[in-house]
Hints:
The chain has 3 helices and 5 strands; from the N terminus they run H-H-H-E-E-E-E-E. With about 140 residues, it is α+β, with helices and mostly antiparallel strands.
Amino acid sequence: MLTAAFRSFRTVAARQPVRAFSVSAARLSAAPPQLLGEGGKAGEVPTDENQSTGLERFELLGKLEGVDVFDMKPLQVDRLGTMKEPIKVYSLFPERKIGCTGFPTDSHDTIWLSLNNTLKNHRCPECGSVYTMDFQGDAHADHHH
């Protein structure tokens, strides 16, 4: 019985693939290109620019160019948003979290609001300031995981 199992294993192992993996067709994907550093050289301590990958590398390269890639500056609120003139919040995604501290600034604790495309306006329950999302992204861009 054991010899029969080995015999069947040998026949499966002896079969050649139809096409080598190295010449297989490239698969199409909508994934973004990988951000990989060149790595550290032998005998040297690698820097952040050498070994960072992904979003960390994207942020580091942006800082080298002098660009705030994640737009981390605070929202300039010089007035109280109303239903007729809400405060517009720029977004590249269909949903964005913002923190309202009231008008004038710091008049109440931070209230976190979730802005999205389904509602036109979003109102802070503490101060009544109204926010709307200025969506500039691609509405049909799906996440390809």
